[in-house]
Amino acid sequence: MRKFETPYVADWLAVSLRWVTLVGLLVSLGLRDLINAVSLTIVLLMALWNIAMSVLVGMNLRVRFHRHIVLAVDFALAALFFYLQGGLGNASVWTGLYPILTGAVYFELLGSLVVGILFIAWQLFVSRASLVNNWTFSISNGLTLTVLFTLVCGAGGQMLMRRLRFQRRTRLDAEERRSNMESERLRAIYELTSTLTATLSYKRVLDSALDLGYSALNPTADPDEPELDERLVSAVYLFRGNELRVGSARRYTNADMRVSLHGNEGILKKIFDDGEPLLSTDVGYDPELGRTIALRSCTAAYCFPLRSGFNMYGMMLFAHPDQNYFTMERRGLLDIIGRQAVIAVQNARLYQDLVEEKERMVEVQEETRKKLARDLHDGPTQSVAAMAMRINIARRMMTKNVDEATDELKKIEELAHRTTKEIRHMLFTLRPLILESQGLTAALEAMAEKMRETFQQNVVINVDEKMLENMEMGKQGVIFYIIEEATNNARKHANAVHIWVRLRPFETGIALLEIEDDGLGFDVDAVNRSYDKRGSLGMVNLRERTELVSGLLNIDSAPGKGARIQVYIPLTEEATDRLHHAKR
User: CA-CA distance, 109 to 104, in Å (whole number)?
Assistant: First the structure.
């Protein structure tokens, strides 16, 4: 006995027709008042047999040679009933329908004819005495009905089973197509993951996401012969500054590729505010996307924000003229592709940041060497040259006027001491060992003292020690160099009399560093506009070092009003997210 995953429709049909036939036999017997113990016993056997078949059908079970055995039992029960009812002259003529229907269901026209002929032969054999003595009208009608049942049931069974086979084949073909489509989608998703994780190029990442989106939305049984929907429009937009620019697109015109968006209206504003995908059914009338020519023929659009945490990289869009094109299944596939694209874009961005950071470090090192060379040239080198010149003068004066030579030697000694202090200050700022041994506060106080001794510059330090309790040493070092850069700028360029340095709490998890001076001040916007033409990189150093501590930099100054530099420094990851989210 074998069990099948799907039930045989023929088995269900045979069981149902048997019940109908049994009801017909009982009605026929009842109308002719022929119900007795013998007839009821045979009908009961037929019913029990059909119940057994119903159980097998319900459990999707079949025995070996199932159809042949079932047909043989049906024929035997019908023949027995016909025999016990006395032949063609009684209500037993209906009995032939019982096996004929089974034969028609299981073997179609051929089965119906074979069973019909056999049952007619059985009818003639059982009714042979009546045939010899008297050919009655009822016998003729009984044989005629049997022949008629045979032909009608055979033809009907032939048509019905062909129809059922056609429907079954259609259903299996549809299931096979769905299976192939699902396999193709899984293959597309696998290729998407493999492709996106194998490249760190922005352009390749975006192109792969769009191409695999097409494959997933339009899968075919043969991957080598894709049937892409030419009406499907897609694009990926990336933020460049405050504008959304096309990173890659399919079916866009040349004019569409040059369109820049801002994300302040319509669909774009909603997905960026909510951070969730959005299905729109009137994309052609969107205040921003409607400017794109390729989207004016589209009705439905599915937009997916390329977002990771608080970082918004852009958005991915698929559009189609069919309003019902983006079904739940297709949207699910696009969600998967969008999430994988976000990861790939994030990896590409991180890689690009690493490349830029490497280049920046090279530039910083080069600028540090230049700065050191300038400081040595403007300070100690000039002082040493001056000392050499004065020593030569003093040597000549020794032969003429000893007192004047002695005074000159004193001046040379003072110059040597000042030069030594400048060199020590430079060495201190290059590597403040006190920062590593005693912490930021001690290093800042030492820096202020050296600036006071070396340059007569008044620097006031005010640090809240609670801010430094859980701050790692690397972050303290970056803060020190921010302060050192800002105070040197104020000393050299602003001629400030006083410089105030304050480090205090701003809000939970965020510290505020302020460097304020009473110097000449400057126009911040004008300096930023002309910064690429300047030789100094002081402002750039401040910004880059602020980024190293994930902080935010604010510079407030005006001519004649001094300057105030504010650096907001997050102390935890949660504070970092909150600070940069508030910036947006």
Answer: 6
* Band of residue 470 on the pLDDT scale cut at 50, 70, 90: confident
Closest CA to 102 of 12, 17, 9, 7: 17
The per-residue pLDDT for range 193-238, each reduced to its tens digit, is 666 566 666 677 778 778 777 776 775 534 444 444 678 899 989 8
Q: Which of 31-35, 281-285, 533-537 has the lowest mean pLDDT?
A: 533-537
Model pLDDT, residue 16: 84
Burial class (CB in 10 A: 0-12, 13-18, 19+), 362: exposed
Q: What's the CA gap between 287 and 273, in Å, rounded?
A: 16
CB atoms within 10 A of CB 14: 23
pLDDT digits (tens, 9 = 90+) for 81-114: 878 776 655 656 667 777 888 888 888 888 788 8
- Order the strands of the 243-250 sheet from edge to edge: 243-250, 233-240, 311-320, 300-308, 278-280
C-alpha to C-alpha distance for 268 and 411, rounded to whole angstroms? 72
Place of tokens 């119903």: 54
Cβ proximity of 207 and 197 under 8 Å = no
Question: 240 vs 1, 308, 312, 546, 567, CA distance in Å?
Answer: 70, 17, 11, 21, 25
CB 71 within 8 Å of CB 103: yes
- Quickly count: other Cβ atoms within 10 Å of residue 325's Cβ: 19
Kindly report the number of other CB atoms within 10 A of residue 26's CB atom.
15
What pLDDT was estimated at residue 225? 40
Q: Tokens at residue 31, please?
A: 């109308």
pLDDT of residue 126 exceeding 50, the answer is yes
Q: Which of 292, 162, 307 is nearest to 233 (CA)?
A: 292
Given this model, what pLDDT does residue 189 score?
65
> Which one, of 430, 425, 482, lies nearest residue 452 by Cα?
425
Let me know if 526 is exposed, middle or buried by CB neighbors in 10 A (0-12, 13-18, 19+): exposed
Q: What is the rounded distance in angstroms from the CA atom of residue 313 to the CA atom of residue 485?
A: 33
507 φ/ψ angles, rounded to the nearest 5 degrees: -155, -175
